[in-house]
């Protein structure tokens, strides 16, 4: 994508190098436009003119350009002489880094993109300058100085860090419904923001950026503000943020514990307070890659993250928006340490939905993935509460829930675990299978139930018949209790009718 953008710049003898970063893809759906692009501050003139006064500038025309910076344009606080600076190819190599700093400071001017008719020329100059900066960073040879890093972070911060004004979403996120049918509200500033994000991404991944120096400016404060941007409603912005955060985590090892803790805190607020955040899926994608790189044996900190954060993330009703990424993270933990399967399965049972059938299907999908990575000892520890829950799912009147539960027997690994422990499992689920076989309304569920019954019957006829006899005995007892209960209520009604005129209490023997 960025190559198409860069293609608009005329270049001579430029060194093309492979893109070291993962450029974020353009997503067709954008949930809202960016609210409140920053207007220009009164210090913009100084931000642009200050660095020029200390540089050894040979061109007298440029000196005049710098002296004119304090003028105003129509009261908008935009420099009257906001003109493009010389191209990198037009200056000697010894002056390129100074020119780079000047261009970075020039891009520290923020424009109002909500009005497309304002400052059209200046916006285009800034955009072209940003594209030149992207190209320069990509092909740079020679370590960036501390001054460059400081100015880069300052410029990026001014352009991307902003307050979001969230739109009312009470009626939009009901049960995690997809909003793809809604007309996307495209951010008018995105063509500008995209280049800033691409520049930041290239700068971080550049081998010329020394992490030991850059960490002074890409610090905890910068990371926190970057994490706040994940609540953007524009999926294209979140895609860039996801890639940038992953690169920061990989390059700045000193920040890793802080990043994990900060994401943790965002998750806690989402789970237990707001249940509203646009970037949960992107956070989980980053964490999925991080979890994949955890060393064995797993640290206690990581196990606590699983128990206190990832498992409770099944609680919010908008689970569907990020379930795929969450399921991947959970499965990664179980594959790394099979002993965690018992903890995960019991956690799923704890947060199992009661009235939300679509969410129940998601739980069953995840359960199959977890069980596929579960070994026999861990399976035996949790199989009783697990199949009590599956038994409820088998009898669900929502055919997709019952059908999905029966599909567990299509997985060879899970079927083998069930067969090995049939003496415990079959008595738990037999009543559910029998009720489905007798009178479930859905034909597909009925057929699948008969197939599962046949599996157990062919495997162990004696156990099957014993369960059948017990079920019939329990059914007879239940019928007898029901008749007694009905007789008691009938006698109570008769006594109530006989003593209707009096205020005496009615005692039923």
UniProtKB/TrEMBL annotation:
Residues 1-43 are annotated as: Disordered. The keyword Cytoplasm applies. GO terms for molecular function: protein phosphatase regulator activity. One of its GO terms (biological process) is signal transduction. It is found in: Cytoplasm. Residues 17-30 have a biased composition (Polar residues). GO terms for cellular component: cytoplasm; protein phosphatase type 2A complex. Pfam families: B56. Gene3D superfamilies: Leucine-rich Repeat Variant. Keywords: Cytoplasm. InterPro entries: ARM-like (IPR011989), ARM-type_fold (IPR016024), PP2A_B56 (IPR002554). The B regulatory subunit might modulate substrate selectivity and catalytic activity, and also might direct the localization of the catalytic enzyme to a particular subcellular compartment. Belongs to the phosphatase 2A regulatory subunit B56 family. This is Serine/threonine protein phosphatase 2A regulatory subunit. It comes from Sesamum indicum. The lineage of its organism: Eukaryota, Viridiplantae, Streptophyta, Embryophyta, Tracheophyta.
């Amino acid at each position: 994508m960025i190559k198409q953008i860069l293609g608009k710049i005329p270049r001579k003898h430029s060194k093309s190098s492979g893109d070291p970063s993962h450029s974020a893809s353009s997503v067709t759906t954008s949930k809202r436009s960016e609210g409140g692009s920053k207007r220009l501050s009164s210090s913009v003139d100084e931000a642009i003119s200050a660095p020029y006064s200390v540089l050894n500038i040979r061109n007298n025309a440029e000196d005049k350009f710098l002296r004119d910076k304090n003028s105003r344009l129509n009261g908008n606080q935009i420099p009257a002489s906001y003109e493009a600076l010389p191209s990198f190819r037009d200056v000697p190599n010894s002056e390129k880094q100074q020119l780079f700093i000047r261009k970075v400071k020039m891009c520290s001017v923020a424009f109002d993109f909500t009005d497309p008719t304002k400052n059209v020329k200046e916006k285009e100059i800034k955009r072209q300058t940003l594209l030149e900066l992207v190209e320069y960073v990509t092909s740079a040879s020679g370590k960036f100085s501390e001054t460059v890093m400081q100015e880069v972070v300052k410029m990026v911060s001014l352009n991307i860090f902003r307050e979001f004004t969230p739109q009312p979403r009470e009626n939009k996120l009901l049960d995690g419904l997809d909003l793809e049918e809604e007309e996307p509200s495209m951010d008018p500033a995105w063509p500008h923001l995209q280049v800033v994000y691409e520049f930041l991404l290239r700068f971080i991944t550049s081998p010329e950026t020394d992490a030991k120096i850059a960490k002074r400016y890409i610090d905890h404060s910068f990371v926190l503000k970057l994490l706040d941007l994940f609540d953007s409603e524009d999926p294209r912005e979140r895609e860039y943020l996801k890639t940038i955060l992953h690169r920061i985590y990989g390059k700045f090892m000193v920040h890793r514990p802080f990043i994990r803790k900060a994401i943790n805190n965002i998750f806690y607020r989402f789970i237990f307070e707001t249940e509203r955040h646009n970037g949960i899926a992107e956070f989980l994608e980053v964490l999925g890659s991080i979890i994949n790189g955890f060393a064995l044996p797993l640290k206690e900190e990581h196990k606590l993250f699983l128990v206190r954060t990832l498992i409770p993330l099944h609680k919010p009703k908008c689970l569907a928006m990020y379930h795929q990424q969450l399921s991947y993270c959970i499965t990664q933990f179980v594959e790394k340490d099979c002993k965690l399967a018992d903890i995960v399965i019991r956690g799923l049972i704890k947060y199992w939905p009661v009235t939300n059938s679509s969410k129940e299907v998601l739980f069953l999908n995840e359960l199959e993935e977890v069980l596929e990575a579960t070994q026999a000892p861990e399976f035996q520890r949790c199989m009783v509460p697990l199949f009590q829950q599956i038994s409820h799912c088998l009898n669900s009147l929502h055919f997709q829930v019952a059908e999905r539960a029966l599909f567990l027997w299509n997985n060879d690994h899970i079927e083998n675990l069930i067969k090995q422990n049939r003496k415990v499992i079959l008595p738990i689920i037999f009543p559910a299978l029998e009720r489905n076989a007798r009178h479930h309304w859905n034909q597909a569920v009925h057929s699948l139930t008969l197939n599962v019954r046949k599996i157990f019957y062919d495997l162990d006829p004696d156990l099957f018949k014993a369960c059948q006899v017990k079920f019939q005995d329990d059914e007879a007892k239940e019928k007898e209790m029901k008749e007694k209960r009905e007789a008691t209520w009938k006698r109570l009604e008769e006594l109530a009718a006989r003593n209707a005129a009096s205020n005496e209490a009615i005692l039923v023997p």
